[in-house]
UniProtKB/TrEMBL annotation:
Keywords: Cell inner membrane, Cell membrane, Membrane, Transmembrane, Transmembrane helix
Signal peptide (UniProt feature, chain positions): none
Official protein name in the record: Protein MgtC
Source organism of this protein record: Phyllobacterium sophorae
UniProt keyword Ribonucleoprotein, yes or no: no
Domain MgtC/SapB/SrpB/YhiD N-terminal: 23-152
Amino acid sequence: MENFLDLTFPQTTLPISSILARLLLAAVLGSLLGMEREWRRRPAGLKTHIMVCMASATFAIVALETVAVPEFQRESVRMDPLRLIEAATSGVAFLVAGFIIVSRGEVRGITTGAALWLASSVGLASGLGFWWIAIPASLMAVFLLIVVRRLEIGMGAERRGSGKLSDDEAG
């Protein structure tokens, strides 16, 4: 029975506390990114950013763990952990494309799309344990979303060509 459990639920190379800390960091940083989008009532808000960030962190942790699984270390099996990370990036790109809309010659949703893309990269950094990348990137993004928006409004919409800011450009 013990052998069955070991084969079914193999031990992780990372301590469980480290895995939980990385997922928690991803959730907290995803919520920071998502709060501003939620506050501005954008289609992808708090929950979406947390989920994207945590999903990417999970992919990163799984990529790290699969390298240590004995079944994947044989000559006949090729395990490239970067493929899981690439899959996460491709999945988020597909999701982001759904938020970008072109209507009457006006592009909307680019800021939300970029925030989701960043949430994914922050999740990957969190999952890989690179908190010194994930935390500053998140804080800089929140600064950008809040402070730079005010600068854009202060500079006026005329520079955009249409004479008015779309909802997403205004926030």
